[in-house]
Target: CarboxypepD_reg-like domain-containing protein
Amino acid sequence: MDVLNKLRLVLLLFICWNTLSAQELSKQLITIEFEHVTLNEALIQINALDQVRLSYNPDHISKEKWIDESFENKSLDAILKTLLGSEFEIKYRGSYIIIQPKKEEVKKKHPIKLSGQVTDAETGEVIKDVTIYEVNKLDATLTNDRGQFDLVVQAKTEYLTFAVSREHYQDTIIQVRDASEMSVSLKPEKKEKTSIVDRFEIETKKLVQFFAPKESRKNARNVKMDEERFFQFSLVPMIGTNGKLSGQVTNKLSVNLLAGYAHGVKGVELGGFYNIDRRGMTGLQMGGFGNAVGEESHGVQLAGFLNTTKGYTNGVQAAGFLNVVTDDVKGVQAAGFVNISKKVEGVQAAGYVNLATQELRGVQASGFVNLAKSINGTQATGFVNVTKKVEGVQIAGFLNVTKKLKGVQLGIVNIADTVERGVPIGLFSFVKSGLHQFGVEHNEFMPYQVSFRSGLHQFYSVLSVSIDPSKDNLWSYGLGFGSQFSLKKKWYGNLELVAHSIQNPQRDQEEDDFNLLNRLNLNVGYQMGKHLSINAGPSLNLYLTKVYDPVTDTYGDLDQSGFYESTSDDLHLSAWVGYAVSLRF
Model:
């Protein structure tokens, strides 16, 4: 009994197998009635409720205060504050609700040393890596391989309250008045199905493990609490105003000289190098190198190199190199190199690559590659865009790829499975359900020509190669656009504008040899079969060339007399009306 009086050990009445955290439980609505009972008896009555575990020193509770009151659908926190009044403060630690006097008698600061051993209540085996901490100052230590611990705390009050916590075990709360040595037994929690470790869990990241010592990470896993404090300062994790339990504290103003490790931030966090928040961030977070957030981020997150957020992000995330969000983004995600996220509603901009694994509503812009499951808005890049569905505009310096297009593709090469509405525009467009047509043609400027048309009937690209063996294999390649329209039954018409670059293998090609034939063709076609048609029609030709033969005093390689000719600054222009006949299949 002397030992119990000395230690002031508060034993709880009942420990449940399935317990909610005290903070979760305190918000639940309950109904309870007290009929002429003392305050102490009222607390005992509350403690008897399912999953409620109160910790307090009975000596601090008035035996003269009587309670006659009923509560209906009130939160446990509100009930306790009503019963206790303003003389007590309530702290939530793991599954415990700790009640302490606000104005304890202040004594001269003196050290209290707590030491002992922690064992498993069922097996009797010692337990290593158990966190023992003082609930107010958050001074903490871990048990060693033999389950032993020593913790010295500078006390200014008569009693100190300590919590003993270990992952997968139920918490224990003890109150101590003097230096003491004790044995503590922890009861295992009810075993649940083993969960697969999330590969994005913040504590598994190498960079987080580098900056956050193993002891800090073990304490974070062991201790079930989240305390809010206005200000904290740290040099590195564990060396700061929040000590070894910084991972359990949410700060309103946090300053980390080198690196910081906290439960979260609701305000402003500044880090010289790296900021780590195990849970959420609300406000402004700035890291010279990087920021890591384990849950949601709301506000502005700025880093010189790297931002990683495991949860939903609402606001602005900007980094010099890389942004990673394993959930959705609403706002702006901007990086000098790469952005990665799920759904994006807003702007995703990167110097090299953007990746949105779900829908992007807004703008996705990059210097090299954009990847998204679907786009509702604009996707623009210097090289390649790839998505399954576009509702809007897809612009690329080289290649656009989508399965379903509702809008416009603009690039050198465009590829789509189907176009529900809109059009692909480029030198070469391939639509799986659209137009794919080869042609063998004859015209007045070169007798033999093969061509390929691809895209939509209403707008398609034309690629062609022509040759005239009678003129020392004079040949040309052509690029252009066309549109096909129905006339009657099997009859149709098409209008095409194609530019042909004339190549003469018998002449040295000089850089300033400009030799271009532009043809506007109006054809009428007849569909002879499912994949066979014949076409014919006139063409308007505009020939521009700087090729000059001083022997014959003629310009160009094409012997065509036209209705218009002129020469200005060594550029010769001639125009004529020609024809074209083709078989397409």
